[in-house]
């Protein structure tokens, strides 16, 4: 079996949450330590790894980033190499991203390219975000590339397709964590309680008016409440309710407006229902903004070798945006032909033939065009 596919299957079995990618990091280090130290240098950062592969001239340093974390989703693919970690799955394709980086690294160690190539195996993309601390760490200066690339699997495109665009490719994203405090009591005496479930329901519905009533309809934004929790049984009024969600926008102004309106609505809910609400915003992921010149260079190359689509921006978030704020570069979608499933679904099953396809493509690009 092709080395990188073997890597993917091994990684698929051990999905781990952000900053707890201990087995994944050990697995990556095991691969790196098999190479001669005069070809490869590396450092660990939290559960991530920086690697430099020496080029023939080393005049420049090209960066390639792979995110390595999994998601708290119970896998339902039935694959023979499915997750061995109950309740966790590589449901966003980071096993593909990491094995592509390992395969590309092996290729250019065995047959060097002109430039040094730096690989960033980054933890916690799904949250709380590993890209920002990784590039703020002093180690980043030792590995700093002059341009950077990253990819994300795209189940909706067939294998052999690359999609990207100059400018904003992914939205900015910010998690929202809300806890509602009231007064629990008997279901039969609601007037003696402060029911957080009713406040929670009203809050969810009001939050859903922000995008439609406060954001310019010509712009795109999203508020999703992905998790709600409250109560202990049918005849006890819940004294505490929790909501977790995420907000997306394509520019900073809209993201700030989303935050402002969430605060306003929460004040209103407190006044109308007599509850107290604790609101916490997570890290803001910046938009992924692709460098125009680098997209031109890369897309011209791809058009000669594969199918290139100039796609629309997507409302997915990606902390690769932090890296692209610091270093010019680009992210692109890699077709993995799984249109009946999708990202963050328990049935996600990317076509592995995309792995050798993109390793060949990037190897060729890094060797002759970058
Ligand atoms: C590519 C992808 O699916 N990324 C995640 C990033 C999540 C960021 C953060 N945890 C949030 O929810 O805001 C996405 O959900 O788009």
From TrEMBL:
<dbReference type="GO" id="GO:0009089">
    <property type="term" value="P:lysine biosynthetic process via diaminopimelate"/>
</dbReference>
<feature type="active site">
    <location>
        <position position="67"/>
    </location>
</feature>
<dbReference type="InterPro" id="IPR017439">
    <property type="entry name" value="Amidohydrolase"/>
</dbReference>
<protein>
    <recommendedName>
        <fullName>N-acetyldiaminopimelate deacetylase</fullName>
        <ecNumber>3.5.1.47</ecNumber>
    </recommendedName>
</protein>
<feature type="active site" description="Proton acceptor">
    <location>
        <position position="126"/>
    </location>
</feature>
<dbReference type="GO" id="GO:0050118">
    <property type="term" value="F:N-acetyldiaminopimelate deacetylase activity"/>
</dbReference>
<dbReference type="GO" id="GO:0046872">
    <property type="term" value="F:metal ion binding"/>
</dbReference>
<dbReference type="InterPro" id="IPR002933">
    <property type="entry name" value="Peptidase_M20"/>
</dbReference>
<keyword id="KW-0464">Manganese</keyword>
<dbReference type="InterPro" id="IPR036264">
    <property type="entry name" value="Bact_exopeptidase_dim_dom"/>
</dbReference>
<keyword id="KW-0479">Metal-binding</keyword>
<feature type="binding site">
    <location>
        <position position="152"/>
    </location>
    <ligand>
        <name>Mn(2+)</name>
    </ligand>
</feature>
<feature type="binding site">
    <location>
        <position position="126"/>
    </location>
    <ligand>
        <name>Mn(2+)</name>
    </ligand>
</feature>
<keyword id="KW-0378">Hydrolase</keyword>
<dbReference type="Pfam" id="PF01546">
    <property type="entry name" value="Peptidase_M20"/>
</dbReference>
<comment type="similarity">
    <text>Belongs to the peptidase M20A family. N-acetyldiaminopimelate deacetylase subfamily.</text>
</comment>
<keyword id="KW-0457">Lysine biosynthesis</keyword>
<feature type="binding site">
    <location>
        <position position="94"/>
    </location>
    <ligand>
        <name>Mn(2+)</name>
    </ligand>
</feature>
<feature type="binding site">
    <location>
        <position position="92"/>
    </location>
    <ligand>
        <name>Mn(2+)</name>
    </ligand>
</feature>
<dbReference type="InterPro" id="IPR011650">
    <property type="entry name" value="Peptidase_M20_dimer"/>
</dbReference>
<feature type="domain" description="Peptidase M20 dimerisation">
    <location>
        <begin position="174"/>
        <end position="267"/>
    </location>
</feature>
<dbReference type="InterPro" id="IPR023905">
    <property type="entry name" value="AcetylDAP_deacetylase"/>
</dbReference>
<dbReference type="GO" id="GO:0019877">
    <property type="term" value="P:diaminopimelate biosynthetic process"/>
</dbReference>
<comment type="pathway">
    <text>Amino-acid biosynthesis; L-lysine biosynthesis via DAP pathway; LL-2,6-diaminopimelate from (S)-tetrahydrodipicolinate (acetylase route): step 3/3.</text>
</comment>
<feature type="binding site">
    <location>
        <position position="344"/>
    </location>
    <ligand>
        <name>Mn(2+)</name>
    </ligand>
</feature>
<comment type="function">
    <text>Catalyzes the conversion of N-acetyl-diaminopimelate to diaminopimelate and acetate.</text>
</comment>
<dbReference type="Pfam" id="PF07687">
    <property type="entry name" value="M20_dimer"/>
</dbReference>
<keyword id="KW-0220">Diaminopimelate biosynthesis</keyword>
<keyword id="KW-0028">Amino-acid biosynthesis</keyword>
């Amino acid at each position: 079996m092709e080395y990188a596919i073997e890597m993917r299957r091994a990684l698929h079995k051990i999905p781990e949450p952000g900053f707890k990618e201990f087995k994944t990091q050990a697995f990556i280090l095991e691969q790196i330590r098999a190479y001669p130290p005069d070809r490869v240098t590396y450092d660990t950062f939290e559960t991530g790894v920086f690697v430099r592969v020496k080029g023939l001239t080393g005049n420049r340093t090209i960066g390639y980033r792979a995110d390595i974390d999994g998601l708290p989703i119970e896998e339902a693919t039935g694959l023979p190499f499915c997750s061995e970690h109950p309740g966790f799955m590589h449901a966003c394709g980071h096993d593909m991203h990491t094995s592509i980086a390992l395969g590309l690294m092996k290729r250019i160690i065995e047959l060097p390219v002109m430039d040094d190539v730096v690989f960033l195996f980054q933890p916690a993309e799904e949250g709380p975000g590993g890209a920002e601390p990784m590039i703020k760490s002093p180690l980043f200066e030792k590995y700093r590339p002059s341009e950077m690339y990253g990819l994300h699997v795209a189940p909706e495109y067939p294998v052999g397709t690359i999609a990207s665009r100059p400018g904003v490719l992914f939205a900015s994203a910010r998690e929202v964590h809300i806890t509602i405090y009231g007064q629990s009591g008997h279901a039969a005496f609601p007037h003696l309680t402060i029911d957080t479930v009713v406040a929670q329901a009203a809050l969810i519905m009001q939050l859903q008016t922000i995008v439609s009533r406060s954001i310019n309809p010509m712009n795109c934004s999203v508020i999703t409440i992905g998790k709600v929790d409250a109560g202990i049984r049918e005849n006890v009024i819940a004294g505490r309710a929790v909501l977790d969600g995420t907000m997306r926008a394509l520019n900073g102004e809209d993201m700030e407006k989303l935050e402002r309106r969430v605060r306003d609505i929460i004040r209103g809910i407190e006044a109308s229902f007599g509850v107290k609400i604790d609101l916490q915003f997570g890290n803001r992921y910046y938009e992924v903004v692709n460098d125009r010149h680098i997209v031109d260079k890369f897309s011209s190359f791809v058009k000669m070798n594969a199918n290139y689509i100039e796609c629309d921006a997507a409302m997915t978030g990606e902390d690769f945006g932090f890296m692209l704020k610091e270093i010019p570069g680009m992210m692109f979608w890699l077709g993995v032909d799984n249109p009946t499933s999708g990202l963050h679904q328990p049935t996600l099953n990317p076509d592995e033939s995309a792995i050798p396809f993109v390793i060949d493509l990037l190897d060729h690009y890094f060797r002759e065009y970058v």
